[in-house]
Amino acid sequence: MIDDRSIFITLSITTIIVLLLTDVTRNLVVSHAIGRATIVLHALLRKTDDLFVDEEETASLRPQP
């Protein structure tokens, strides 16, 4: 029976060779860079002030029994 590690190594090497022989590598690098830039931009613009609940503030809004 073939070891899973051998299959993984063979498929990884084959994938790298095919990527280098085609023009897909450039597309992957560009799309990866755009994705990373989008994530960084989102992290910079995201507001975290309203992600928690102030229990004292919400307790005053609830009707008392």
From TrEMBL:
Keyword Iron in annotation: no
Subcellular location: Membrane
Chain segments annotated as coiled-coil in the UniProt record: none
Membrane-protein topology: Multi-pass membrane protein
GO BP terms: vesicle-mediated transport
One GO cellular component term: endoplasmic reticulum
Transmembrane residue ranges: 6-24
InterPro entries assigned: Prenylated_rab_accept_PRA1
Keywords for the protein's UniProt record, in alphabetical order: Membrane, Transmembrane, Transmembrane helix, Transport
Role, per record: May be involved in both secretory and endocytic intracellular trafficking in the endosomal/prevacuolar compartments.
Name the record gives this protein: PRA1 family protein
Source organism per UniProt: Nymphaea colorata
